[in-house]
Amino acid sequence: MAGVTPLKRVLTDLSRIPHVQGVFVISKEGFMIDSIMASGSFDEEALAAMLTAAMGSIETLGKELELGKPEIATLEFTGSIALVSDIGENIVALIAEHGAVLGRLRYELKKQLPRIKAAL
């Protein structure tokens, strides 16, 4: 993959997990830094803004209930799963359709977070 950035390489690796629809790196200011979509389509600007707001709410919940800092927030919807992780200045989100194995998604995302941080 000549000319492919290290970040794009990691996102591509994550997007190859069965049923993954997209992987996104978003700034905490609500801007899309990079993304890859294996299937489906998303309004990236809206997604970035909503996930930034959601992560802020999840962090506030953790503080208020004295639960600590969230590692990976798992959001389960009727037909999809979203995993969201705070990596300092940015947020990583992985969206998968129904049928994805949640344990594998969590394992792979957690395993790749250091690569994503290093690539930024």
Features:
single chain, 120 residues, alpha+beta, Beta-Lactamase, 5-stranded antiparallel β-sheet, 28% strand
Structure description:
This protein is of the alpha+beta class and 120 residues long. It has one domain: Dynein light chain 2a, cytoplasmic (Beta-Lactamase, 2-Layer Sandwich), CATH 3.30.450. The protein is 41% helix and 28% strand. Strands 2-1-5-4-3 form a five-stranded antiparallel beta sheet, sandwiched between helices. Helix 1 (6-15) runs antiparallel to helix 3. The longest helix is centred in the middle third of the chain and has 21 residues, at 44-64. The protein is globular and about 45 Å long. The model has no long low-confidence stretch (mean pLDDT 92).
Give a brief outline of the structure.
The chain has three helices and five strands; from the N terminus they run H-E-E-H-E-E-E-H. It has 120 residues and is an alpha+beta fold. Helix 1 packs antiparallel against helix 3.
Give me the CATH architecture, please: 2-Layer Sandwich
| Domains, number | 1
CATH topology: Beta-Lactamase
Low-confidence stretches: none
The helicity comes to 40-55%
Q: CATH homologous superfamily - what is it?
A: Dynein light chain 2a, cytoplasmic
Instruction: Work out the radius of gyration.
Output: 14 Å
- Calculate the terminal CA-CA distance, rounded to whole Å: 18 Å
How are the strands of the biggest sheet laid out side by side? Answer: 2-1-5-4-3
Order of helices and strands: HEEHEEEH
Largest sheet: 5 strands, antiparallel
Strand content: 25-35%
Q: Counting H and I runs of at least 4 residues, what is the number of helices? A: 3
- Global mean pLDDT: 92
Structural class: alpha+beta
